[in-house]
Each structure stands twice: as structure tokens, then as C-alpha cells.
From TrEMBL:
The keyword Repeat does not apply. The active site is at 340 (proton donor), 371, 500. Catalyzes the reversible isomerization of glucose-6-phosphate to fructose-6-phosphate. It is an enzyme of class 5 (isomerase). This is Glucose-6-phosphate isomerase. Keywords: Cytoplasm, Gluconeogenesis, Glycolysis, Isomerase. InterPro entries: G6P_Isomerase, G6P_Isomerase_C, Phosphoglucose_isomerase_CS, SIS_dom_sf, SIS_PGI_1, SIS_PGI_2. It is found in: Cytoplasm.
């Protein structure tokens, strides 16, 4: 493709250009920032110039991003390896009808949402008492999207909690559920089991453990369970009344599911009004993504910056750096969202990709990361694009001075990454400290920062439910756009299947019930050592 080659050539031609040079031109910051609703997205601290941006926008156009987006919003089966529509957006757009195979899916979505609201209200108000009085704690048992989404969101919106305490269990490691349940009272705990098929091995193993724990104190443990599942047969076999089972269609992917029943724990924590704000923020971002021109479209621009850095500049990783402690789980959530969606090696037609697919996504909240891995970002040999996000205002007015320091650190880090420190500057600093000669040069070189390291910043007023919903939807659509440009299916995840299959086969080998014939020498050795250590 000519545009693809033009962008490769452009990346090569600007490789030695310093980002700071671009600010010598008129209104660099204003020209490479965009606003929508409460958000300001600043991508001026990248090496993208006007010509590059035009090429990237054209790339999105020739890749039919707009048509693919419209196909998604209108219920076409864009997940073609599984023959499914991709309609998580319908879960937060309760006013517009959406059709799949000629059937309006919204009546069922609205009915399920109303049932969620009623149940959450009963739990919050003490009308649902379980068998020991008002529910004080909720334990959500899930894994992947059934855990990462609601766990991340519940932490993010902690200032809005006025319901029961929420806890999340995902790992099949017994330590996770043991430590979570240790401080809880079975009589006042509601357990929510989140598994679409009610067969997910990690989730169901933890659910059975929770049921046994519940049975130690209550006569009918299943009466204090709810299920987020489509399997009426399996939830009934577990003992859960159908009134406490909340299902969702196969067009809701796991990592996109917290807008519906998977978000029940969040709704219980913050109430239906807060949850409605969360949905509204996402729906507003949906409308912006659907309607705005590419050059002003935040999800498209965020995706194009990512494509520029990964596919054309060959930066293999991306650091997500929220300067908000309550967004501590956001990097992990985005790891799954991006790496499970776009970590593919073949295109939609099954052919090998001729370029790299998605990047490695990682990060931590600021300012903790500054005392951990920022050393490598600033002075390491690899360039790591950074994505900062920060609120202008915190939720603690009596600690406003600390939030000011937090924001100052965020803005300073992006400035430092771009500016760097030259050898001449470092030499002058060390000369003033009394160094001279060869030792002056040696000490100065340790204090050189290469600079010209790219970053973006997402700024918003305060982390409210509406703002938070907009952030999550922004990144969902960003991943979608990147997938369309790369020509891959962002909505399947076959890469998780092989390990599951092999784990199921290995369990009886570890128990000594199967000889494990056909296993490689390393696996046999490790199995034997585990068995010997267990005695």
C-alpha cells in the first residue's frame, strides 16, 4: 500500500528530528490537541507533524474504519471467526433500537438492566437480606473480563461507594479466595459468580470453594449467590434461583462486558444513578467516535498515534501512566483489552500479517512509577511511548495541595521526556559541583537524558462516573480502530485456548491418575518434581 510505505518513509526521515523542534513552529500545542466533552487530548509531544497526521488520517480512511465502525454499531457480525455481532455499545445506549439478524435486541437489554437495578436496590436497601441480615459484602468471582472490568471500575469510582463493600476473586490459586473470604461473614455476604457459560474452570472452582465456605454458617448457601451467566441449566444445578441470574447475549465479549450484567457489583457499590452516569459517559464517547471527523476524533487519533509509534517507528511497548491512584488497575485492564484483542498474527483472511500486531501494554499509577521504571523510560536504550492521564481536580478538597503536586509531577514527566538534558547542560551542572577533567566528563554523561521521547496526555476535570465511562469507551474504540487498520479480528481470542486444553490434561497427571505419555521431557521432569515435593 502506498500510504503505508509513505508512512514508513516518513518515520525514517524524522528519526533524528527532535520533538522539541516542532514547538518552534506556530501553535504546536493547539494544533495537535483535540477536545470533546470533558476531555483534552494532547498529542503534541510526539514526532507527528501535519504531513504525518494527514497520512495517518488517510490510512484510516482507506482502511474503511468508518464503515467498519458503522457495521459494529448496527449489529453486523464483524467477529467473523465466531460469527457474532459486536454490540457492547448497545449495553450503554438504552434509547436507540439495534437489530441483529432482523431482531431488535434492545427490549431484552432494557429488561435485564431493569432487573439489575431492582436487585441492586434490594441489596443496597436491605430488602435482600440473605440469611443473616443486611448484606455487608459482595464477592465477585470471575476471571478475565469478568473480573478486570468491574474490579478496575469499582476501585476507580471509590468516592461514589455508598453500598456494600466489594471484593474480587479471579485467580485459581487458593490463596486468592482464602484471603478474600477470611475476613468476611458468610451470613452477610453475597457471592456473584460471573461466567457466561458457567463452565470457566477457574471461576467454577472458586465458586465451589465459596459455596463450601458459605455452608459452614448458613443452611442454604446457594440462596446467597447470584449468577451472571447465560446457562439457566447450569446455574439451576448450582442452586441459584433464576430471579438472581442475569444473562447476556453472545455479542457481548468478555473484555467488553462490564456495561451490562458483569457490572452488577459496580452497580451495587455505587447505585443505579452512578452506574447510569458511567453508561452515559461511554455513550457520549460512542456518539463522538461515530460522528466526528477523523482529524478531530479522539479514539481515532489515539489509535493513529499508537499505530505510528508501533508499526512505523517500531516502538514495541506502550506505557499507560494514570496519575490517579484509583486508576491503579487501569493498566492491567488495558493490557487485556489491547493485547487479547490485537495480539494476533494473521489477518481476517487467515494470512500471516506482514507487520507487527499490537504492542506490549503496561504501566502503573503515578507517582509510584517514577520511583520504579521511569529510569528506563528516561535513560534506557529503548524508546517507550507514554500515555499520561490526569484529573485537574481530586475528590479530597482538604488534600488539594497534594493533588497539585500530583498534577505537577505528571506534567513535569512529559516535559522531561521531551526536553531531556544535553551533555553541555549536564557538564555545567557537575562543574558547579566541583568536578573537573575526565571525572567531570564521566559524571556529566551519567546525567544526560536523551529526550525527544514521545508522550500523550489525556486531561479531564475530575474522575466522575461519567468521565470514567468516557475513558474506558475511548480506549475500547482505540483498540477497535487499530485492529481495523491492521486488518485483524479484535474480538476473538483463540490464543487462550491451547493453554487451557493442556492444563486440563495435566491435572490428572499431577494427581498420578495419568502417566502423561507424550509429554516432553521438561514437563515430565517438572511434574515428577512437584509430586516428589508433595511427598
Amino acid at each position: 500500500m502506498t500510504i503505508w510505505q509513505d508512512l514508513l518513509d516518513k518515520a525514517q526521515s524524522v528519526q533524528s528530528r527532535r520533538i522539541g523542534e516542532l514547538f518552534e513552529k506556530d501553535n504546536r500545542a493547539g494544533g495537535f490537541s483535540r477536545e470533546t466533552g470533558p476531555f483534552l487530548f494532547d498529542f503534541s509531544k510526539t514526532n507527528i507533524d501535519a504531513e504525518t497526521l494527514d497520512l495517518l488520517v488517510k490510512l484510516a480512511e482507506v482502511k474503511d474504519v468508518a464503515a467498519r465502525a458503522e457495521a459494529m454499531f448496527t449489529g453486523e457480525k464483524i467477529n467473523d471467526t465466531e460469527g457474532r455481532a459486536v454490540l457492547h455499545t448497545a449495553l450503554r445506549n438504552l434509547d436507540t433500537d439495534v437489530f441483529v439478524d432482523g431482531e431488535n435486541v434492545m427490549p431484552e437489554v432494557r429488561a435485564t438492566y431493569a432487573r439489575m437495578e431492582a436487585f441492586a436496590r434490594d441489596v443496597r436497601e436491605g430488602k435482600f437480606t440473605g440469611q443473616g441480615g443486611k448484606i455487608s459484602d459482595v464477592v465477585n468471582i470471575g476471571i478475565g473480563g469478568s473480573d478486570l472490568g468491574p474490579a478496575m471500575a469499582t476501585l476507580a469510582l471509590a468516592p461514589y461507594h455508598d453500598g456494600p463493600r466489594c471484593h474480587f476473586v479471579s485467580n485459581v490459586d487458593g490463596a486468592h479466595i482464602h484471603d478474600t473470604l477470611a475476613g468476611l461473614n458468610p451470613e452477610t455476604t453475597l457471592v456473584i459468580v460471573a461466567s457466561k457459560t458457567f463452565t470457566t474452570i477457574e471461576t467454577m472452582t472458586n465458586a465451589e470453594t465459596a459455596k463450601r465456605w458459605m455452608a459452614e454458617k448458613v443452611s442454604d448457601p446457594a440462596q446467597q449467590f447470584a449468577a451472571l451467566s447465560t446457562s439457566a441449566e447450569k446455574t439451576a444445578a448450582f442452586g441459584i434461583d433464576q430471579a438472581r441470574v442475569f444473562g447476556f447475549a453472545d455479542w457481548v465479549g468478555g473484555r467488553y462486558s462490564m456495561w451490562g450484567p458483569i457490572g452488577l457489583s459496580l452497580m451495587i457499590a455505587i447505585g443505579s444513578e452512578g452506574f447510569a452516569g458511567f453508561l452515559k459517559g461511554a455513550a457520549t464517547m460512542d456518539a463522538h467516535f461515530r460522528d466526528a471527523e477523523f482529524k478531530d476524533n479522539l479514539p481515532v487519533l489515539l489509535a493513529l498515534v499508537g499505530i505510528w509509534h508501533n508499526q512505523f517507528c517500531d516502538y514495541a511497548t506502550r506505557a499507560v501512566l494514570p496519575y490517579d491512584q484509583r486508576l491503579a488497575r487501569l493498566p492491567a485492564y488495558l493490557q487485556q483489552l489491547e493485547m487479547e484483542s490485537n495480539g494476533k498474527r494473521v489477518s481476517m483472511d487467515g494470512k500471516d500479517l506482514p507487520y507487527n500486531s499490537g504492542p506490549v501494554v503496561w504501566g502503573e499509577p503515578g507517582t509510584n512509577g517514577q520511583h520504579a521504571f521511569y529510569q528506563l523510560i528516561h535513560q534506557g536504550t529503548r524508546v517507550i511511548p507514554c500515555e499520561f492521564m490526569v484529573a485537574a481536580e481530586g475528590h479530597e478538597p482538604d488534600l488539594a495541595h497534594q493533588h497539585t503536586l500530583l498534577v505537577a509531577n505528571c506534567l513535569a514527566q512529559s516535559e522531561a521526556l521531551m526536553r531531556g538534558r544535553s551533555l553541555a547542560e549536564a557538564t555545567e551542572i557537575m562543574r558547579k559541583k566541583g568536578f573537573e577533567g575526565d571525572e567531570l566528563d564521566r559524571q556529566a554523561r551519567h546525567r544526560v537524558f536523551p529526550g525527544s521521547r514521545p508522550s500523550t496526555t489525556l486531561l479531564y476535570p475530575k474522575l466522575t462516573p461519567e468521565v470514567f465511562g468516557g475513558i474506558v469507551a475511548l480506549y475500547e474504540h482505540r483498540v477497535f480502530v487499530e485492529g481495523v487498520i491492521l486488518g485483524i479480528n479484535s474480538f476473538d481470542q483463540w490464543g487462550v485456548e491451547l493453554g487451557k486444553e493442556l492444563a486440563l490434561a495435566l491435572a490428572p497427571v499431577l494427581k498420578g491418575e495419568d502417566a502423561g505419555e507424550g509429554k516432553d521431557g521438561s514437563t515430565r521432569q517438572l511434574v515428577a518434581r512437584v509430586q516428589s515435593l508433595r511427598g
